[in-house]
Design brief:
The protein has about 300 residues and is of the alpha/beta class. Helix content is about 50%, strand content about 15%. The chain starts with a strand and ends with a helix.
Length: about 300
């Protein structure tokens, strides 16, 4: 991208944006809601036309884009067909093994996409993405609605992926795990940091991205808001500590149940397996609920500190 400008109607969203992504880079894009991150990506993939500037994709680049609407999926396909369509040479074992990484087991693979929950559709879209032969993948908020297991699979897969990755995320743990470079979109400008997210977050504590031109009345209001948020922040941090302990305990229980499920002594005891499976499912559901609350509180904490 070079000297890119874009907006909606008479409102300029950003201007003079320019950056280049090199082959093999893992790039995370961050910014507040409404900053224009998804719009910038849609300009990159050609879904929108810039007001000014140019977008150029290198030769031999085969890209795949997963947006928040998951338009990559065909609602009339089955889970199995979604992967089979792009990897027709895979046999049944390969297809099922790949889908199992995203917790699609047994009869689940024959469900139609339209029958899946929001979280299941997100997992399927990512399963499809990671089976594609594309060498440049672009993802918009990939960890939204993902359970813990699928989040870990996605992180590992993207770290091992030999192609180029660009993703939008508010998930600081995911950013820290995957991104090697940070693009921060703020107030219509793009800030480029080559390094880990934690390094960037530490840097902006001393060099804030916010404009220095803040009038006195706004500063007074900000101080009042800081005082209001102080008590809320204390309670939030207390709850975060509780959640960390609960999450660690649940993960330990789930691992223990998984070990029991794989124990050959239970191989023919269907009642025992069903009981263990149900208990694990309930604990996974509680873990997902706690993780969702945890990440929400982390995001609130970051917003309060920024």
């Amino acid at each position: 991208m070079d000297n890119l400008s874009f907006g909606f109607g008479n409102t300029l969203l950003f201007e003079d944006i320019g950056f280049e992504i090199e082959r093999g880079e893992k790039v995370g894009m961050i910014g507040r809601n409404g900053a224009g991150k998804s719009t910038l990506v849609k300009l990159l993939v050609g879904q929108l036309e810039p007001w000014e500037g140019t977008v150029e994709i290198g030769r031999n680049v085969d890209s795949e884009y997963v947006d928040q609407e998951l338009s990559i999926l065909n609602q009339n396909d089955s889970v199995l067909d979604t992967i089979w369509d792009i990897q027709p040479q895979w046999d049944a074992f390969q297809l099922r093994s790949h889908l199992a990484r995203f917790l699609f087991f047994g009869e689940d693979v024959f469900k139609y996409v339209r029958m899946l929950s929001g979280g299941e559709r997100k997992k399927l879209a990512l399963a499809r993405l990671l089976a594609t032969p594309a060498n440049f993948v672009i993802l918009d908020e990939p960890t939204n609605h993902l359970d813990v297991g699928s989040r870990e699979v996605l992180e590992e897969s993207l770290r091992e992926y030999e192609g180029t990755v660009l993703f939008i995320s508010h998930d600081r743990f995911f950013l820290e795990s995957v991104a090697q470079r940070i693009l921060a979109l703020h107030e219509g400008k793009l800030h480029d940091w080559r390094g880990k997210y934690s390094e960037f977050a530490e840097k902006i504590k001393t060099i804030p991205l916010k404009s220095e031109a803040v009038d006195k009345s706004q500063k007074r209001e900000e101080r009042k808001q800081e005082r209001r948020q102080k008590n809320i922040g204390t309670a939030r941090k207390r709850r975060l500590k509780e959640l960390e302990e609960e999450i660690a305990s649940l993960e330990k229980d789930i691992d223990s149940l998984q070990t029991q499920l794989l124990d050959e002594r239970h191989a023919s005891d269907w009642e025992k397996l069903a009981s263990l499976g149900q208990e694990q499912k309930e604990k996974r559901a509680l873990l997902d609920k706690n993780m969702s609350e945890y990440y929400q509180l982390i995001e609130e904490d970051e917003t309060a500190d920024s």
